Amino acid sequence: MSARLTRRGALALPLLAAGAASAQQDFPTRPVTVIVPFPPGGATDLIARPLGAALQKVWGQSVVLQNRGGAGGGIGMAAGAAARPDGYTALIAHVSYSSIPAADALFGRPPSLDRTALAPVALLTADPLVVVVKADAPWRTWLDYVADAKRRPGEIAYGSSGPYSALHLPFEMLAQAGEMRLNHVPYSGGGPAMTAVLGGQVSATASVPSVVNPFIRGGQMRALVHTGAQRVALLPDCPTAIELGFRSVEFYLWVGLFTQAGVEPAIQRRLREGVAAALREPEMQRQLETTGMVVDHREGAAFQAFLDADRVRIEAAINRIGRVE
Question: Higher-confidence residue: 21 or 59?
């Protein structure tokens, strides 16, 4: 009987393999959860919500967005990394993917995020940060701002969304490149920092083009410089730091999709195919165009190369800033 069972088991192996291959090919066969590690309304939501709707259309399955904010994105990203590696829990991540481990290392803390537990699926967007001041501020250009800051070291204040955040890092990169010392004032988020600029509590802050453009068009703010490699269509008159001579300054508030490293390659491929199809959906393109976000779709080696270069820039910036208690 034992031999008969063994033969049956051997005969069943090809059927099991065929069933597994079919499951991978048919993925997803049930709802997919996408963790967004920030509260609703931020830059990650601007891409996550239309992406979720487009993926739902492409796959014919529900896509559930789950906002899990806290610890600068660390709580949600850790939850995504620890999820069951079956492809049914994806993760939206941004710059904190690199900044959280770098800050942990700086303070000698145990790592709160294991990046090796995550597999990059696709880069979605990569927006530069635009430095803005009030429209009636005395600085007409970024060079004016730098010259004034050099005359008054530590006196000119700017607002960020917290230490080592996506607003703090580019400002300190600019300060380092311009050989100036600014007064960093952290707020609870980018919105409060923007409000502080409009209220005159701080001189400047930064955000992505889609966020600052309404304030600029409405005559409330002026853009001085941005941190991308080339000018952006939404703000064609705003120069890059690189073209002004600050060649070490390049920074992006990027948004990408990740899954767990243990997810089978065939399912990772299905996730990449789903994202690529979703980005071609007319409604998704319309929503991104409305918000002013520009797609920067990269997969595989191209996305990994982007992450590697971004990590180097982020780690260098955090080490220059030093410990902020």
Answer: 59
